Amino acid sequence: MKKCGISVLCILALLSAGCVWAAPSEKELKAMSVFVSNFTEQGIMDVVTEEMAQPDKYPDLVRFGIRHNYINNFKSRIEANKENAREHGDVRIKASWVEESVLKYFGLKIKADRSVEQVYPPYHFDGTSFHFQAADGEATWHARVKKASNPQKGVWEISGEVYNADDPTDILGGFKAVIRESVWKNKPHYVMVRLSAEAQ
Fold first, then answer.
1. CA separation for the pair 196, 132 (Å, rounded)
2. Would you kindly state where each structural domain of the chain is located, as residue ranges?
């Protein structure tokens, strides 16, 4: 009975102080770094998912979905347009892939069914796909998670640095983020809650 009493007191103390869950493994830290890099590699350094859910953020979500696939899934999801069908760009991507990427990384369901002209390059929707001009050349920034705390089950507060993918010693600055655990196609994943980075 005495041993049981001590256990109960310990549990109550943890609950009153706010339970701290297990520290992340090196594998988890790497997965978190890769996850955040899917945003920083596009130059997205400041984002709040709750705000992105607003109707006026549709262009930003479409751009994210297209750019994510252009960078990470070029061979499997980006299709070349024929020479006589390049009025709106030399490549295209199915809208369904854009919707999937937005859901995977933001946890937001959207209907990608309108052209986005107010960005460069513009994305023209033809009813099933977005057409645009392929473009490369910008520096790619990745994220490295150095600290992670788990204030509540399924939620992580993380921080680290943003660095040049071609030169890891070139540090852009630091970042802080809140991400939430999720499952994607039966595998552990994360969705963004908010991200904020500052140049040093």
1. 29
2. 22-41+140-199, 55-132
Residue 61 structure tokens: 């979500």
In this structure, the number of other CB atoms found within 10 A of the CB of residue 122 comes to: 16
CATH of domain 22-41+140-199: 3.10.450
Check whether 5 has a pLDDT greater than 90.
no
Element (H, E) at 14: helix 2-17
- First-to-last alpha carbon distance for the chain, in angstroms, is 56
- For residues 91 and 79, is the Cβ–Cβ distance under 8 A? yes
pTM of the model: 0.87
pLDDT of residue 172: 96
pLDDT band at 16 (very low <50, low <70, confident <90, very high): very low
Measured distance CA(129)–CA(41) in Å, rounded: 23
For residues 72 and 184, give the distance between their C-alpha atoms in angstroms, rounded to a whole number.
17
Beta bridge partners of 134: none
Within 13 A of 78's CA, how many CA atoms are on the CB side?
18
pLDDT tier at 135 (50, 70, 90 boundaries)?
A: confident
